[in-house]
């Protein structure tokens, strides 16, 4: 018999990753005749996501997959679902420590780890010395915070001689990132590296540097490899990024949910691999579809 | 207010087309979704609507005054942050669950203070409220980020988030608080001197000044009320989350204004009531909930909400023809 | 001293509260950062402000006509996604006119609902904000769009090119600002917009086609958005579905900072340019000083209130509002 | 009348300046208890300002207010009311969406515990007042639903809410019908009998002379003197006010009539007006007389393309025309000076010149640009012709005095060189001097070959300017008179709906 799974996503349409994720998720569900899915989107608003969780609980679905808009704020709502006997699978970015008892499993990339990877690539690119700037995602959102955290901590530890000149948000927006980078370029005569919270912003920063004729000496490192980032890497303008496939992400989430429902012994944390991608090893990867 | 006697239900509905709309979407979703017509779902709708609803009560006052407040979303976020954070201050460590009390009180005070500040600026500078609160919307959000240091706060004490799950009989506490506030603000607006002066100030500010109403302090009080209600809404929202996030309440001002205008309050002031606002809040709540239950794809939700907003405006225009006496203007 | 002058009615400059605020503010920033007053930086800020600026020109005209336009943000997303997406499909020479036409259609819907049906502009454009955002997402399927060949297209000129060393976005912004300034101050259409915004009833009694004038203001606003979209698309060589999100409020803030009255009938294109520059310089200046983004928001809060207050105070000839 | 009593109120050396304007320049004024003291002056002389100082709405720069022998400071209207000073405003000062009762007690609604409104007391006392004013509506009705005249009565009712020492009426009769005027005058006499001091501001000399005991004249913000009504006459007052005598005679030269320009046949727009037929010839002034609400304005609006008629024909120069919009009307050579100058006539935030050239701005171009030269030429011409007092064409219209604003509107439509000029209540709220100028102007225009329609609720005005008078009652034409045959009695009969044998 069929199982009904409800999913509430963070903010579909804000970037291609989330959209591709949704499409892959629906495709995977359609491919499985025993699964019926209810697909909801919180539009980036925690309160709306909580309402959606309430609505799903009220419809008595068999399992809930949630892509948290905020790992902290969802704990009580997840607890409600848990208390109602509905297993909750968290996808993509994890819920806060306090909520771990109430979820069946987490499936997704490790954003802190991604930050660490990026820091390592930065150290490598700069040979452990230089001045960099960082452009983060939308302030206050978990993914942005975790990546920054991983990056900052690892950078300080691994190559203390790399100086971070400033950190400003790019709001996951390429044009905004481009503007921020332009100001950085005016402000600092010497910039050796740029870390951006995703490739979309990274390419914005690259655009700014290209227009200023200063792209040559700068190592651009991003996260969530986008097609534009991949292409820039192929042209030799972009140093490296973290490869993360929304299709893997979505399929892993659905599979985890099915495993949980099948009563299998699923580990709490299921990270799927998000390897470093650089100019050297990029042939090993397909060009991202987004 | 006046001539209550000669109002037939039909005429009442013509003047409040939003309630007709509420009935229509209610019937529509009842037919279209198996899960809609269910008393637990009604509880959900009320709880979900209460967040926007509480602020909308205050916005009704402010808009009847001829002002507007765009900073409510940010105020909500700051109040939520205080409500959650203050609980964990060391000085209340020994208070047990009583630590919630100073936290919530402080959060509400912060809301009132921000409202007072907005009101004071509007009063003293004479700058349009739209502008003052547009600035405040940015600035208060900045304060939120300064205060939270970008990250979320969460309540150690589960008693706090359990509060939101309480119910009295079949009614969830959150819904009761909302309905209680609705009643109070309704009485305030329709029965009290302050409420009647609210109409006077919005309907003809000069006349209100001439009649000796102290327009400045009066407006400031209404800004304090909306500050209080936004903060209350933030506190209640944070009990649902057991946490406070810095981006809480983004875009809420637009939804609140939408609900209030759908409820028949005029942006130019002087006209509107709480009954209409309640209708507007429920209309949005039911639409949101029903579309979730029917799984309308996210992209279409935007189009549907936008179109309905405009459609209701057209209906309202049809029923309540502007009073230009048939002149072709 | 300034206050005394304000009270006395003062010299012409004191009446220009916004200009005074702008100058004060530039002086403070120059003192705080030595990079601020450099040619490169100023050019860079001008260039950055072109997108918001071009949109603000259109919105200024709408606001002078007595209405609001909050739909410009999602309209910008729409136009940018469309032009970038079509660029690779049908080539820039066709993509641009198709996009402009489509955007003008959206403007015409606004104009019809507000100008002809006389619906409230705040709510209509709020509804359009949401509806257009949905349209963009449906059109693009939620995917980012990019221009494949970023180097070989002449489309790159609008965002990245320059003429005699002046960046194309600046030229476009300046040109449009001058054109619209001339239209508003010296041409019959401009006079009509001021009249309709100042007193719609009296305008009708003077034989001015009020509905048509309002309709036109929304077409102009849409036209400005499509120009902004060309600059944006060309500058970024790609687009997200939500690029314009939140721009409506920045644009409105710029218009307000320029001293245009939300009541309609008063305002000036050139002062809107001042407002746009002021917001851009705040962002730029604070980043130059190494301040975090939230400081920007706090400063913007203060600047908006103080600047508009000065402007209002200068007009009424006293600092505090006379209401009790 | 002037017994040796303490004045109810005395103003001494009041100075009030606004930015750029010295509105009051050391004005003295006093009212005795039980006296009706008229305050006169041209438009912009400072009458309203003086009264606003008295009522606490403006703070004087210099001078003092003495009430019952005590020098007092009134900083807001409530304080003034507490001192027994009540001001009935010139511009209606009502909140449209509230009930009449709430408007009457605005700012001091009766209270119960917890700040609740005491509705019962409110309605009881306001209905008592409305009854005393012989109003045929009750306190419960919403003010928007009342006619302008009844709204004025609500405004007046405010005077009766307290035991006043002094009541100021600032042009209370500007929009009252004759029936209500009678009631108002009774109320004033009643107040007077109760020893209340009354200040009465009006531009209508007949009212001043029937009501007042003394007359104080202001000119350009300064005090000109006080006269005892019984010992003076209109001419003396006028000279004090405007510095010269008025020639109130009508030029009796028979008009040189031309062809019929406008011909209206069986025009109807139910329920506003029905079966309206009349014609106007070049060189002729036709007056429309009737009570407020008789439907004259609506006819004018229909002719100007602002309303759609149900049936009937409009002919210009004998050719039937369709008038679907003001643009149509303008291109057919019809001009309308509307009834309400602030709402319909002027864009208050625009300057004088731009207001005047607004209807023709599309045509006054050189190339694509508005030609400043052509505009200034028009403005200068009509400023001189109409003697508009303004420092420059750049002055914002909103700060001009009422009379000058009205002249801008008239100039605007004259400059269109219309064939048919319709003026609706052209002298409402305008001082005697300007009024006479406007009357002369209308006669001159007719002499130049314009077809002129004058709509007015003032009989002397209609009698003075018209060659023919159309009397209307309740949306219908009752009778037409020629200037020779008309008498006041027959006119009053016609507009009251009393048909006579020889009705038109
Ligand atoms: N608030 C104000 N600001 C600036 N000027 C003002 C203000 N109020 C009045 N004035 C000016 O003061 C002068 C006196 O105006 P006031 O209204 O007292 O005239 P008035 O005698 O009542 O005329 P009217 O017969 O037309 O009512 C006018 O020149 C007017 O323009
Ligand atoms: N019943 C009413 N309710 C509200 N306003 C009214 C009413 N009757 C008349 N008025 C207002 O009074 C004014 C004059 O009325 P109307 O135009 O119908 O008659 P009229 O014969 O042109 O009168 P007049 O020209 O003397 O003012 C108009 O401005 C109209 O808005
Ligand atoms: Mg006056
Ligand atoms: Mg009339």
Main sheet makeup of chain C: 2 strands, antiparallel
Unreliable segments of chain A (pLDDT under 50, ≥5 consecutive)?
A: none
Structural class by SSE content of chain A: alpha/beta
| Side-by-side strand order of the widest sheet of chain C | 1-4
Task: Give the termini distance of chain C in whole angstroms.
Answer: 26 Å
Mean pLDDT of chain A: 90
Q: Assign a percent range to the helix content of chain C.
A: over 70%
Q: Could you spell the SSE succession of chain C in H and E letters?
A: HHHHHHHEHEEHHHHEHHH
Q: Cα-atom Rg of chain C, whole angstroms?
A: 20 Å
- Please mark out the parts of chain C with pLDDT under 50 across 5 or more consecutive residues, or reply none: 1-11
Which structural class fits the helix and strand makeup of chain C? Answer: mainly alpha
Query: Main sheet of chain A?
Result: 6 strands, parallel
Fraction in helix of chain A: 40-55%
Organism (chain B): Roseinatronobacter monicus
InterPro entries (chain B): ABC_transp_permease
Subcellular location (chain B): Cell membrane
GO molecular function (chain B): transmembrane transporter activity
Secondary-structure map:
The complex is a heterotetramer of chains A (290), B (329), C (324) and D (504).
Chain A: E1 3-9, H1 16-31, E2 35-41, H2 46-58, E3 63-66, H3 75-83, E4 88-91, E5 105-108, H4 111-126, E6 130-136, H5 142-158, E7 162-169, H6 174-187, E8 193-196, H7 199-212, E9 219-221, H8 227-234, E10 240-242, H9 246-261, E11 269-271, E12 276-278
Parallel strand pairs in A: 1-2, 1-3, 3-4, 4-5, 5-11, 6-7, 6-8, 8-9
Antiparallel strand pairs in A: 10-12
Helix pairs in contact in A: 1-9, 2-3, 4-5, 6-7
Chain B: H1 9-15, H2 17-32, H3 39-64, H4 72-85, H5 100-125, H6 129-148, E1 153-154, H7 158-163, E2 167-168, E3 171-172, H8 173-191, H9 193-203, H10 205-210, H11 215-241, E4 243-244, H12 252-262, H13 274-293, H14 298-319
Antiparallel strand pairs in B: 1-4, 2-3
Helix pairs in contact in B: 1-2, 2-13, 3-8, 3-9, 3-11, 3-12, 3-13, 4-5, 4-6, 4-11, 5-6, 5-11, 8-9, 9-11, 12-13
Chain D: E1 9-18, E2 21-31, E3 36-40, H1 47-54, E4 62-67, E5 70-72, H2 77-82, E6 85-88, H3 100-104, H4 119-132, H5 148-157, E7 166-170, H6 178-193, E8 197-201, H7 205-211, E9 214-219, E10 222-228, H8 234-242, E11 260-269, E12 273-281, E13 285-289, H9 296-303, E14 311-316, E15 319-320, H10 326-331, E16 334-337, H11 341-345, H12 352-357, E17 365-366, E18 369-370, H13 372-386, H14 402-414, E19 420-424, H15 432-447, E20 451-456, H16 459-465, E21 468-473, E22 476-482, H17 488-495
Parallel strand pairs in D: 3-8, 3-9, 6-7, 7-8, 13-20, 13-21, 16-19, 19-20
Antiparallel strand pairs in D: 1-2, 1-4, 4-5, 9-10, 11-12, 11-14, 14-15, 17-18, 21-22
Helix pairs in contact in D: 13-14
Bound molecules: adenosine-5'-triphosphate (ATP) (2 copies) and magnesium ion (MG) (2 copies).
């Amino acid at each position: 018999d069929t199982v009904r799974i409800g999913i509430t996503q963070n903010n579909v349409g804000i970037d291609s990753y989330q959209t591709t994720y949704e499409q892959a998720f629906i495709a995977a569900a359609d491919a499985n005749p025993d699964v019926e899915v209810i697909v909801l989107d919180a539009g980036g608003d925690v309160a709306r996501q909580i309402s959606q969780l309430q609505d799903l609980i009220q419809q008595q679905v068999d399992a809930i997959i949630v892509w948290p808009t905020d790992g902290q704020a969802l704990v009580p709502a997840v607890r409600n679902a848990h208390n109602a006997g509905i297993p909750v699978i968290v996808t993509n970015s994890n819920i806060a420590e306090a909520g771990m008892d109430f979820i069946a499993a987490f499936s997704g990339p490790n954003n802190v780890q991604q930050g660490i990877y990026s820091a390592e690539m930065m150290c490598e690119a700069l040979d452990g010395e230089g001045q960099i700037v960082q452009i983060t995602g939308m302030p206050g959102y978990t993914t942005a915070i975790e990546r920054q955290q991983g990056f900052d901590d690892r950078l300080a530890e691994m190559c203390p001689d790399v100086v971070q000149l400033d950190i400003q948000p790019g709001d996951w927006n390429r044009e905004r990132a481009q503007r921020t980078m332009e100001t950085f370029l005016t402000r600092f005569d010497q910039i050796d590296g740029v870390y951006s919270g995703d490739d979309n912003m990274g390419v914005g920063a690259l655009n700014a540097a290209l227009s200023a004729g200063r792209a040559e000496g700068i190592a651009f490192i991003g996260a969530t490899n986008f097609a534009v980032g991949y292409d820039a890497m192929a042209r030799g303008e972009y140093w490296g990024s973290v490869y993360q496939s929304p299709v893997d992400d979505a399929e892993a989430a659905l599979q985890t949910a099915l495993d949980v429902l099948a009563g299998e012994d699923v580990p709490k944390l299921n990270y799927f691999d998000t390897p470093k991608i650089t100019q050297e090893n990029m042939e090993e990867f397909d060009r991202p579809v987004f | 207010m006046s001539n209550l006697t000669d109002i037939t239900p039909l005429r009442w509905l013509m003047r409040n087309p939003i309630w007709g709309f509420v009935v229509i979407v209610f019937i529509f979703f009842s037919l279209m979704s198996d899960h809609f017509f269910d008393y637990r779902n009604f509880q959900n709708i009320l709880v979900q609507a209460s967040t926007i609803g509480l602020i909308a009560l205050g916005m009704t006052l402010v808009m009847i005054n001829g002002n507007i407040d765009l900073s409510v979303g940010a105020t909500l976020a700051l109040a939520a942050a205080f409500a959650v954070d203050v609980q964990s201050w060391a000085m209340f460590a020994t208070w047990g669950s009583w630590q919630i009390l100073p936290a919530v009180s402080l959060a509400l005070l912060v809301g009132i203070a921000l409202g007072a500040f907005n009101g004071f600026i509007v009063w003293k500078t004479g700058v349009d409220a739209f502008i003052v609160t547009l600035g405040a919307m940015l600035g208060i959000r900045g304060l939120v980020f300064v205060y939270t240091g970008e990250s979320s706060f969460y309540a150690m004490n589960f008693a706090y988030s359990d509060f939101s799950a309480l119910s009295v009989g079949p009614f969830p506490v959150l819904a009761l608080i909302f309905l209680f506030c609705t009643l109070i603000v309704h009485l305030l607006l329709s029965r009290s001197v302050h409420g009647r002066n609210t109409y006077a100030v919005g309907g003809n500010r000069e006349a209100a000044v001439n009649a000796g109403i102290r327009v400045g302090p009066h407006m400031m009080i209404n800004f304090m009320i909306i500050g209080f209600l936004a903060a209350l809404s933030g506190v209640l929202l944070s009990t649902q989350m057991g946490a406070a996030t810095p981006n809480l309440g983004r875009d809420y001002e637009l939804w609140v204004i939408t609900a209030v205008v759908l409820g028949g309050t005029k942006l130019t002031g002087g006209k509107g009531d709480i009954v209409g606002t309640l209708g507007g809040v429920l209309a949005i709540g039911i639409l949101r909930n029903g579309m979730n239950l029917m799984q309308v794809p996210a992209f279409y939700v935007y189009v549907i909400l936008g179109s309905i907003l405009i459609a209701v405006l057209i209906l309202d225009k049809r029923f309540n023809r502007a009073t230009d006496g048939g002149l072709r203007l | 001293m300034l206050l005394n002058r304000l009270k006395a009615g003062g010299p012409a400059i004191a009446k220009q509260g916004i200009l005074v605020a702008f100058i004060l503010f530039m002086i403070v920033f120059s003192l705080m950062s030595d990079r601020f007053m450099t040619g490169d930086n100023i050019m860079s800020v001008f260039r950055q402000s072109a997108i918001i600026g071009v949109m603000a020109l259109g919105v200024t005209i709408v606001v002078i006509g007595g209405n609001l336009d909050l739909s410009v943000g999602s309209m910008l997303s729409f136009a940018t996604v469309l032009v970038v997406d079509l660029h690779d499909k049908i080539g820039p020479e066709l993509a641009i006119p198709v996009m402009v036409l489509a955007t003008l259609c959206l403007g015409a819907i606004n104009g019809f609902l507000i100008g002809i049906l006389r619906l409230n502009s705040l709510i209509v454009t709020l509804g359009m904000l949401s509806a257009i955002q949905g349209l963009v997402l449906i059109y693009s399927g939620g995917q980012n769009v990019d221009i494949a060949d970023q180097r070989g297209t002449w489309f790159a000129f609008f965002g990245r090119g320059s003429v005699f060393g002046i960046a194309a976005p600046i030229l476009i912004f300046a040109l449009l600002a001058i054109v619209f300034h001339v239209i508003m101050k010296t041409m019959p259409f401009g006079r009509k917009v001021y009249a309709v915004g100042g007193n719609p009833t009296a305008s009708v009694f003077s034989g001015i086609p009020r509905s048509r004038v309002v309709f036109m203001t929304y077409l102009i606003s849409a036209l400005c958005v499509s120009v902004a979209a060309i600059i944006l698309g060309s500058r970024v060589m790609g687009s997200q579905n939500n690029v314009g999100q939140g721009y409506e409020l920045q644009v409105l803030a710029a218009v307000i900072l320029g001293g245009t009255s939300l009541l309609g009938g008063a305002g000036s294109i050139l002062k809107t340019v001042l407002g746009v520059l002021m917001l851009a310089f705040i962002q730029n200046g604070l980043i130059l000083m190494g301040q975090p983004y939230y400081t920007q928001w706090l400063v913007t809060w203060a600047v908006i209130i103080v600047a508009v207050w000065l402007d209002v105070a200068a007009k009424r000839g006293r600092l505090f509002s006379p209401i009790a | 009348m002037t017994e040796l009593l303490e004045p109810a109120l005395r103003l001494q050396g009041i100075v009030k300046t606004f930015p750029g304007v010295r509105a009051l320049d050391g004005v003295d004024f006093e009212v005795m208890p039980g006296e009706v003291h008229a305050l006169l002056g041209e438009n912009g002389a400072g009458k309203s300002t003086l009264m606003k100082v008295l009522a606490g709405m403006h703070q004087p720069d210099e001078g003092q207010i003495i009430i019952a022998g005590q020098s007092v400071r009134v900083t807001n209207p409530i304080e003034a009311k507490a001192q027994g000073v009540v001001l009935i405003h010139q511009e209606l000062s009502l909140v449209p969406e509230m009930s009449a009762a709430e408007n009457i007690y605005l700012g001091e609604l009766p209270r119960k515990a917890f700040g609740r409104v005491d509705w019962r007391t409110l309605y009881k006392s306001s209905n008592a007042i409305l009854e005393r004013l012989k109003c045929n509506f009750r306190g419960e009705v919403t003010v928007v639903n009342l006619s302008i005249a009844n709204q004025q009565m609500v405004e007046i009712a405010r005077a009766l809410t307290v035991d006043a020492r002094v009541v100021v009426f600032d042009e209370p009769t500007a929009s009252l019908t004759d029936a209500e005027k009678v009631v108002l005058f009774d109320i004033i006499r009643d107040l007077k009998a109760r020893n209340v001091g009354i200040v009465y501001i009006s531009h209508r000399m007949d009212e001043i002379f029937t009501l007042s005991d003394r007359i104080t004249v202001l000119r350009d913000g300064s005090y000109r003197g006080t006269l005892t009504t019984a010992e003076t006459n209109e001419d003396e007052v006028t000279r004090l006010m405007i510095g010269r005598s008025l020639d109130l005679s009508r030029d009796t030269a028979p008009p040189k009539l031309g062809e019929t320009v406008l011909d209206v046949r069986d025009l109807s727009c139910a329920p506003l007006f029905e079966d309206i037929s009349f014609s106007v010839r070049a060189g002729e002034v036709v007056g429309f007389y009737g009570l407020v609400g008789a439907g004259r304005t609506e006819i004018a609006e229909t002719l100007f393309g602002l309303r759609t008629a149900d049936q009937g024909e409009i002919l210009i120069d004998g050719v039937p025309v369709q008038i679907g919009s003001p643009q149509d009307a303008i291109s057919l050579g019809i001009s309308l000076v509307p009834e309400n100058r602030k709402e319909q006539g002027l864009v208050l935030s625009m300057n004088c010149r731009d207001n005047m050239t607004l209807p023709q701005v599309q045509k006054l171009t050189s190339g694509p640009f508005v030609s400043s030269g052509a505009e200034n030429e028009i403005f200068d011409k009509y400023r001189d012709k109409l003697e508009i007092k303004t420092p420059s064409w750049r002055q914002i219209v909103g700060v001009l005095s009422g009379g000058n604003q009205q002249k801008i509107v008239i100039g605007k439509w004259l400059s269109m060189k219309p064939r048919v000029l319709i003026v609706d209540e052209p002298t409402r709220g305008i001082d005697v001097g300007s009024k006479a100028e406007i009357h002369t102007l209308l006669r001159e225009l007719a002499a130049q070959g314009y077809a002129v329609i004058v709509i007015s609720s003032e009989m002397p005005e209609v009698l003075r300017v018209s060659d023919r008078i159309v009397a209307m009652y309740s949306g219908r034409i009752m009778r037409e008179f020629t200037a020779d045959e008309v008498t006041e009695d027959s006119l009053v009969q016609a507009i009251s709906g009393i048909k006579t044998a020889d009705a038109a």
